[in-house]
Amino acid sequence: MINLCVLGDSHLNAIKGGWDLLENEYPDLELTFFGAGRKNMQFLEVSNGCLISSDPHCANRMRRTSNGLDRIADDYDGYLLCGLEFGLHAAVYLCMTHRIESDEPDDRVPVSDPCFARAIEDELRGTISVSTVRKLHQITDAPVAVVPYPLRCRSETIPVLKRIRETGTDQKVRDLADSAATRLSEEYGFRLFLQPQDTLSSPLGTNSIYSRIPGSNDGHMNASYGREVLKVVFGQFPS
Amino acid sequence: MTSPYIDLPGRAFWRSGVVDQPPDAVQGLYQRKFRFDPALRFATAGSCFAQHLARNLRERGLNLVDEEPAPSGLSAASASDFGYGILSARYGNIYTARQLRQLIQETRGEFQPADIVWEKNGRYYDALRPAVEPNGLSRPEAVLDHRAYHLGRVRKVFQNADIFVFTLGLTEAWVHRPTGTVYPTAPGTIAGVVDPLVHEFHNFTFQEIYDDLTNFFELCREENPGISFLLTVSPVPLTATAGSEHVLSATMYSKSVLRAVAGQLYHERGDVDYMPSYEVITNPRAGASFYEDNLRSIRATGVDAVMNMFFGQLGETGAQAEPRVAGEREPAADNIRERERVLEEVQCEEALLEAFAP
Predict the structure, then answer these.
(1) Whether B356 and A64 lie within 8 Å, measured CB to CB
(2) How would you label A121-133 residue by residue, b for 16+ Cβ within 10 Å and e otherwise?
(3) CA-CA distance, A204 to B168, in Å (whole number)?
(4) How many A×B Cβ pairs under 8 Å?
């Protein structure tokens, strides 16, 4: 039996839903979920070879989602982090105000591609996800993987995003963001599972069929999305 | 017949004004010309030492104009790597008065610098501020595009500042002979290639620097009639001289000329003040204690001595508690981000619990 520890914030909802759809197909896999609000998850601490939460609210949530466990042990075969501030949304927000080198001139601020990528990298480095990876490395040598936040479904509704989609610059923005995230994964020693291509409607947007609330631009996705993500993860992790 | 020196204050005499004074707090060394209001907007530009001044002005809570703020997400260290958050715009170091004059002329469409895209290893750099993009840009067109944006922001610096602080650094420069374009660094140093047929060394004279600064002041006041100027001379010696003299002599010449120009403008113009940074750092009473071991870089204690002298003139009100950065507000995208962040946090708990409901 392969035991995976899955940590996350509200986006764990989709992953859990996906697991509920897939569970029967992976009889040798057991997932234990530890979830709490994003801000609460920053209170995880290393203690006696485990991760525990110093925040009672977070600890309570984690107990609830893990069916009663009050600590994240060091004996899982792998650790999968979902969200926890790690996502390419920073790139989407940044390209609303700043244009990269290949973008057409407009009223946005021009920024060099290296600077754009560095901004994304710096933002990702400061995430709860990265700090949690570092804490996990203190207690275990088991592989750690990160699944970023899904891109929102609303890229078509924002004029500037629609415009860069038409010019094809959105793919270049995406490439810069992906490279920044990949560099961080190498720096901090974790596997990075970028959003599956099949779930995208554009380089910077998720297909709305995966939205948790149909027709909305809610950033949370549904169980079908979670299933697609886990199918990719299980094909490669832990290994 | 009484001596004209009999009733002079202590600061007029070397013994009481220098020898008997602690070097980090020389009394009466700086007496401000303008009334300092903590709400005043300060803009900074100049040589390396200008960066020290800008940082301290910012840290001590003065309103420092920043017309090219860093992109969201960039750390302070990364911002500095890309020339953000150092001075009032991303112009990099401006070492000479001619370079400053050409910059304001360029913002007004009155000067077109030549040969401003330099190449190195397949990347392209703005020759007039080569250090702001450490990895260069991918195309020459991008350099020109970025520069056009930058010039618009620089013009805003001149228009929005109440006091423009300029640190005079050098008299030596490398010039594009056909057009007179002045570069902050010699071609080939960071990027580009030196061409002896096109690029020449020039050591600016007192008159040239005086005229350049006077012209700059006039153009600046056309942009912003209420602006005033604070000059200071960088105490950082030359790293190297391309002239024929020993670097010590070349440094003394440069600093002397710059100091003389600053002094003359201070005495002639009501809108120009002079802050004696150079005097603080090079004060014989300090020995070379305000210099690092390389006798070029300025120690933090030296910068503090300069800033304490300056802030001592602000009076009891000192600086505002909250620094305000002038410049345009972030576009509406930031509102989108904030709205979505709040929504997400509100929805966070609810969304999490959904899948785990019994």
Answers:
(1) yes
(2) bbbbbebbbbbbb
(3) 47
(4) 119
A11: three-class secondary structure by DSSP: coil
Query: pLDDT, tens digit, for every residue of A18-54?
Result: 999 999 999 999 999 999 888 888 889 999 999 999 8
Pseudo-torsion of CA B87, B88, B89, B95, nearest 10°? Answer: -50
Q: From CA A177, how far away is CA A113, in angstroms rounded?
A: 10
pLDDT tens-digit readout, B6-29: 889 999 999 999 999 999 999 999
pTM of the model: 0.89
Residue of A115, A157, A204 to mutate for B, most B C-beta atoms under 10 A: A115
The answer to whether B356 contacts A65, with C-beta atoms less than 8 Å apart, is: yes
For the question of an ipTM over 0.95, the answer is no
Taking chain B (358 residues) in runs of 10, the rounded mean pLDDT of each run is 87 94 94 86 93 88 94 93 95 96 98 94 94 94 97 98 96 94 84 84 97 98 97 93 93 97 98 97 95 91 93 60 38 58 53 54
Min CA distance, B353 vs chain A (Å)?
7
Residues in contact with A120: Cβ distance below 8 Å, sequence separation at least 6, in sequence order: A88, A90, A91, A94, A176, A177, A180, A181, B73
Cβ distance B337 to A105 less than 8 Å, yes or no, reads: no
- Residue B45 CA to residue B33 CA, distance in Å, equals 20
**What are the residues facing B120 on neighbouring strands?**
B123
Q: Map tokens 């390396």 to a residue.
A: B48
Q: What is the pLDDT of residues A120-168, one digit of tens each?
A: 999 999 999 999 999 999 999 999 999 999 998 876 678 888 888 888 9
B344, A219 in Cβ contact below 8 A? yes
What tokens were used for B16? Answer: 């009481």
Nearest CA among B282, B272, B332 for reference residue B306: B282
Q: To the nearest whole angstrom, how far is the Cα of A119 from the nearest Cα of chain B?
A: 4
